[in-house]
Amino acid sequence: xxxxxxxxxxxxxxxxxxxxxxxxxxxxxxxxxxxxxxxxxxxxxxxxxxxxxxxxxxxxxxxxxxxxxxxxxxxxxxxxxxxxxxxxxxxxxxxxxxxxxxxxxxxxxxxxxxxxxxxxxxxxxxxxxxxxxxxxxxxxxxxxxxxxxxxxxxxxxxxxxxxxxxxxxxxxxxxxxxxxxxxxxxxxxxxxxxxxxxxxxxxxxxxxxxxxxxxxxxxxxxxxxxxxxxxxxxxxxxxxxxxxxxxxxxxxxxxxxxxxxxxxxxxxxxxxxxxxxxxxxxxxxxxx
Length: 288
What we know:
Layout: H1 2-16, H2 24-31, H3 35-46, H4 50-68, H5 73-79, H6 85-96, H7 100-104, E1 130-135, E2 138-148, H8 153-167, H9 170-177, E3 185-190, H10 194-199, E4 201-209, E5 219-223, E6 226-234, H11 239-252, E7 265-269, E8 280-287
Antiparallel strand pairs: 1-6, 2-4, 2-5, 3-4, 3-7, 6-8, 7-8
Helix pairs in contact: 1-2, 2-3, 5-6
Protein name: AraC family transcriptional regulator
InterPro entries: AraC_E-bd (IPR010499), GyrI-like (IPR029442), Homeodomain-like_sf (IPR009057), HTH_AraC (IPR018060), HTH_AraC-typ_CS (IPR018062), MarA-like (IPR050959), Reg_factor_effector_dom_sf (IPR011256), Tscrpt_reg_AraC-type_HTH (IPR020449)
Keywords: DNA-binding, Transcription, Transcription regulation
């Protein structure tokens, strides 16, 4: 429940400051998590990004103001964060399918997005298989790319990263090098350093656990000793993995006392056919 309450506090902060120039860091502070983890959790729970939620809500309130006041369109544009009437009209038309001028004349239909309220509903009829394990620190090695978390960019760009490494046979090489504490190829999310928080970026690794010498062409990352919750994932990619992530944040965390510790988490992939309905994968999340 603590997670749900923290997200709700952040939503209340956003709602009170829709006409202000607020940042992801400002919002995440009210949820008491890093901006990276807030954006990730928010997206999984709501199926939209923080930036998109703010944009939709601002344009919803702008439409209401056009209908109920005589305020100039240019003043409303400025109030909701648009530097020019042209930029405001373009965004307004994209959401509502009509222009501010037409709305002022009571023409056209509007598309309204209401304020979000996070609620716990009766879920979980389908069981989730997981274990809680303690593991000493271990080393992973592979390739990493840095992604912006602004406008949920990382969700669109990480799959392209996987396409690139698969096309060049890099993941096959990682399977042959894998001799460490975790068996498989890993997709590691790292977004916890102060630099990353301030710049709204994250590093994503395609890597594997290696015990011993690291090949020179690979970068390495130390995964700290942690208590982990390990979820089983059954089914083809990417839907099975995406569905499990959503259930973790919408069902498992709200009904358990654990919190994400803030250390890197990762997905574990086997060398089975990724399109197989019987594919087995895992999600590892560090907890406290």
